[in-house]
Design a protein that fits this description.
- By secondary structure, the protein is mainly α.
- The protein is built from three helices and no strands.
Amino acid sequence: MKPLQISPETAIKLAAELKVPIEHLMHMPQHILLQKLADLAKKESATPSPEKPDSSS
């Protein structure tokens, strides 16, 4: 299995978000990585984000 074709910056950010070592991330099967990203996105959308003030006034 070849490593994922992502930039080093992306790998660092993903490893931090998913809380896995970069070495594990780079050799993770793509379908598992996509599932983890979907779970992360679902979790982020479920938590209410702070409202930003409307600056269009």
